[in-house]
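Attaching the record inline, Q. Sequence:
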Amino acid sequence: MHLTIIVGSSRPCGVSARVVALVRRHLGDEIGVDDIWLKNYRIEYCDADNACSDQDCAIQDDVKQLVARLDRADAVLYLPVMHAYGTNSRFQAFLERVGYGFMRPRQRPLSDKLAAIAVVGRRYGHTAVFSQVVLNVLLNKMILVGSGFPACFQTHLAHDPEAEQALCETLDRLCEHHRRLNSIGAANRRPEKGHQSMHFHNG
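Structure, as predicted:
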């Protein structure tokens, strides 16, 4: 499985970086992890001109490059940061572009990819941000995977064992679902044992 993490933080050494390190440590070397830090990309705000209903978005920025990286992933972990009880502005711009305008004329290329969410913030508002990203995941027709409780990391804590457990269980479920989907796909591609093609002749 190849996992891509979308990181909303602008702090290279903050809690989000610790979460990315946790993901890599938990998954080990067998799972490829690609972390995309949105701070390194130019993401313009959606202009809501609705022209993307039937043609590609005309805004020239790095969103096309970001979507190409996401398209190569088997699973995506959204890692937004909470500002003012909502997601930070850069992540909000990303959600608007990728959820609303950019994907629509492209027939939702992230459809059926596995997705999970973890939220970083001081306190309060975590579940509101979590719910917003859930709606974006569903809009892009992805498959949402969770562990029963949202992984919400509180930045005022030196360690957040509850959030770490929720995230690790979610990562395990991502791997499990990826294996199941692959086994189903392999079974569908494999011809049944002893099956022979049937030919009908007029007689």
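Helices lie at 15-27, 63-71, 89-101, 126-139, 161-189. Confidence is low (pLDDT under 50) at residues 195-203.

More tomorrow.
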